[in-house]
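hi! just following up on the protien thing from before. the input was this:
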Amino acid sequence: MIPVSLVVLTSLLYFGVLFGVAFYADHQRKCGRSVIDNAAVYSLSLAVYCTSWTFYGSVGRAATTGIDFLTIYLGPTLIAFSWWFLLRKIVRISKEQNIVSIADFISSRYGKSSALGAIVTIFAVLGIMPYIALQLKAVARTFDLLVYPFATTGTTHILPKFDLHFDSALVVAMILGLFGVLFGARHLDASERHEGLVAAIALESVVKIVAFVAAGIFVTYGLFDGFGNIFTEFLTRFPEREHLLRLGSAENSYAHWLSMTIISMMAVMFLPRQFHIMVIENCREEHIRSAMWRFPAYMLIINLFVIPIALGGLLLNHGSTLNADFFVITLPLQYGQPWLALLVFIGGFSASAGMVMVSSVALSTMILNHLLMPIILKVHTKAQNLSRLLINLKRLGIIAVIFLGYLYYRLLGESAALVNIGLISFIAATQFAPAVIGGLYWRQATRRGATIGLTLGFIVWFYTLLIPTFVQSGWMSASIVEQGLWGLTILKPTELFGLSGFGLWTHSLFWTMFVNLGSYLAISLLTKPCEAELDQIRKFVDVYNPLPITTERTRITRAPTVIEFVDLMAKFIGKKQAHASISTYLGDSEIDEKGSLSEVELPKLKRFTELTLAGSVGAAPARIIIDKYLSARGSHMEDVFDLFGSVNISRTASREQLGVLYEAAHTVASGNDLQSILDEILKIFTDQFKFDLCVIRILDEERQTLTVRSQRGMTS
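and the predicted 3d structure came back as:
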C-alpha cells in the first residue's frame, strides 16, 4: 500500500513536468525554433500507439491466451516498411490540401463531400469511445490498487472494490481535458502543429518505456534468474499451458494471427490519433524514413519483457489469471518494491494520458469541422466574427469527447478486459482503410462507393462487436447472441450467416471488410465520379506528378477585392491571422488590396482563401463558405475556353466537343491572319453551342489588361 497523498502528489508533479515541457515547446515555436522538428521526437510521438493496452493489457493477454499479443506490434512493424511511399504520400497530400484530420482527408478525396465527412466523424467518435474508456479504466484500476490494502485469499491477491467517494477516473479525465484544451485548442488553425502537445507525448513515450523495462528487469532478474529460468520453471510447473507459447494452438490459430495482424496494420495508420500524429503533426517528410526503423525498435524494446512478466505472474500466483492485466504493477507491490510500483503507475498513466489527449484533440477537430460547421454556416450567416465561437466549440469538444469515454467506461467498460475494449476500436479504425488506400491509388473510386462501403462496414461492426458487448454488460438480452435477431440463427452477431469456427475478432473483421470493401468496389465500378471528385482525383493520385500549371479555365464575375477576401477569412480565423496570411500570400507583389485583380489572380486568390480556411474549418466547410460567399454577393465561376492553352479531353467527351476542337484547330492551322482566325472560331462556337454572347479577350501580361479582339452578340 502506498499513501494516497504520495500517489496524488507524484501524479501532480508529473503533470507539472508535462505542462512545463509543453509550455516550453510552445514558447520555442513563438521564437521561431521548433523542439519537435527532428526525427527522434517524431518517432517517439508515434509511440502514442503504445497505450495502457501495451502497458497492462499485453501482459494480461499473454497470461491468458498466449503470444497472440505480438500481432498488435507485428502489424505496425510490417506496414512500416511501406511508409516511404504510403505514409509519405498521405503527408504530401495533407500538406498541400491543408487537411486537418482523417475525416477531412476522406471527404476531400471524394469531392470535398460534407456528408461523407460527417459520416466518418460520427463513426470515428463511436469507434474511439471504447478506447478512451480503456485508458480511464486502466488509470482508475491501478490508482485504486496502489492506495488501497489488498484483500487476500491464501497467497492470491485480489484487487479491492472501488471506493466510489473518490472517482479517480473522473479526476484524471478532468485533468486530461484541461491539458487538451490548453495545448490542443490554443489556436483555431488545426493544420498548425501543436508543438507543446507533441513534445509532451514524446516525453511520455520515454517515461513509459523506462518504467516498463524497469519492471521487466525486476521480475526477470530480481524475482527469477533470467529468461531461461522463467521459461523452464513455467513449462515444468504448468506443462498443460505450453500452448500459450506456440503458434497454431486454439487460442493462436493461423487465421487468428492473420486477422489480428491485418487489424493492427490498419489501426496504426487510421486510428484518428495515429493519423493526427503521423500526418498532421509531421514536420518533414524525411522524418518518416527514420521512423520506419525507430518506431518498430521502440515496440520491440517495450515488448521484450511482456512474456517474462506474464509467466512470472502466473508462477508467483499459482497459475491464477485473476487480474493478469496488472501483473506489471502487482508483482513489485507484492515483493517489496513500492517505488518501482509507483514508477510503473506513472508509466501506465503516461501511456493512457497520451492516447486520450491526442484522440480528444483529433476528434474535437472532426466534430467542429464536419458536424458543427454546417449548422453554424446556416445559423450564423450574418455574424461578423466567428473565430471566438469556433475555438470555444473546439475546446468544448475536447472535454465532451473525454467525458463520453468516461461514460462508456462507467456503463460498459467494467465488464471487459483491456485488450477486448481496445480491439473494438481497432476494427472500427480498419473500416477507414478501403476509402483511404483506394482513394490514393484507384482513380475510379467514387464518393458513393466510399459512403456506402463505410456505412455498411460500421453497421456490421456495431452488430458483430458492440451488440455482444451490450449483452455482456447486461444492457441487452442474451437471446440475440444465443438465438439471433428475431430468432433467426443466421443473424447471430457472433456467427453471422452461419459463419462459425472463428474467434470474435476474425469473424467481425471478415464480415465488416466483406461488406465495406465489397460495396466500395462494386458501387465505384457502377458509378462515375462527379466533377468535384475528378479534380481531387488528380490531386491525390498524381500528387507526385502534378500537371503543368496552366492558366485557369474559370473566371469570377463581379469578383471581391483582396481586402474583401481578407474580411471573409477574418470572420472565421480572426483579423490578425487573416492579415498575416494574406501578407504572406502577396509577398512582394504590387497587388492593390482594395483594387480589382486580373482574371489570372482571382482564381488563385480564391484557391488560397479556401486553403487557408480549410486549415481551420476543414476542406468541405471551406468550399461551402467560399461558394456561399460568392453566391451571396452575386458572383459565380464561369467556364472560359482557353483555345491556345493545354486542353485535356476526357474519354467521355462528346462528339460535338471533339468536332468543335477539330474545326478550331483546323482554323488555327489555316495560316490566315490572327483577326480572321479569331472571327472564324467565334462563328464555330456560336453555330455549334448556340451562344447568344461570345467574346475573345487577349491578356497583355505586362500591363495586366484584357482587350476584346473579337465578339458576337455585343452591342457597340
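Strands lie at 151-153, 156-158, 491-492, 495-496, 554-556, 637-639, 694-700, 705-712.
Residues 257 and 488 are 30 Å apart (CA to CA).
cheers
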